[in-house]
């Protein structure tokens, strides 16, 4: 049994012998689309027009979220993680992340004679 494939132009819905898959590139990405010869010509002209603008333009990079550095500990010689571990081990309530209360730092310093108040 024979089958007949009818390609339909993705832009105007026309059918015809000249409709075929057409590959094209935009900004180093390859796309494919079914187009008639006429719509393929229009696409090629449009890409050439846009290409002229792109060639003269400067790419704008998306703003990054940046790398957020960990907040410095308020105790010299110890990290905030050290303070949290001590607090959890000694029944002092402290959040897993975020700001550590000044009272927690004060209790940590009191429990650690070598600890000195930091920043």
From TrEMBL:
<feature type="domain" description="Lsr2 dimerization">
    <location>
        <begin position="1"/>
        <end position="48"/>
    </location>
</feature>
<protein>
    <submittedName>
        <fullName>Lsr2 family protein</fullName>
    </submittedName>
</protein>
<dbReference type="InterPro" id="IPR036625">
    <property type="entry name" value="E3-bd_dom_sf"/>
</dbReference>
<dbReference type="InterPro" id="IPR024412">
    <property type="entry name" value="Lsr2_dim_dom"/>
</dbReference>
<dbReference type="InterPro" id="IPR042261">
    <property type="entry name" value="Lsr2-like_dimerization"/>
</dbReference>
<dbReference type="InterPro" id="IPR055370">
    <property type="entry name" value="Lsr2_DNA-bd"/>
</dbReference>
<dbReference type="Pfam" id="PF11774">
    <property type="entry name" value="Lsr2"/>
</dbReference>
<feature type="domain" description="Lsr2 DNA-binding">
    <location>
        <begin position="78"/>
        <end position="111"/>
    </location>
</feature>
<dbReference type="Pfam" id="PF23359">
    <property type="entry name" value="Lsr2_DNA-bd"/>
</dbReference>
<keyword id="KW-0238">DNA-binding</keyword>
């Amino acid at each position: 049994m024979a089958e007949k494939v009818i390609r339909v132009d993705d832009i105007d819905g026309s059918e015809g012998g000249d409709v075929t898959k057409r590959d094209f590139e935009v900004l180093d990405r390859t796309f494919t689309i079914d187009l008639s010869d006429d719509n393929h010509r229009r696409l090629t002209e449009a890409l050439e027009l846009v290409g002229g603008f792109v060639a003269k333009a400067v790419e704008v990079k998306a703003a990054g979220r940046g790398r957020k550095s960990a907040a410095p500990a308020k105790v010299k010689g110890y990290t905030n993680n050290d303070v949290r571990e001590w607090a959890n081990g000694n029944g002092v309530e402290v959040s897993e992340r975020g700001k550590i209360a000044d009272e927690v730092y004060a209790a940590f310093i009191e429990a650690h004679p070598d600890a000195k108040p930091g920043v």
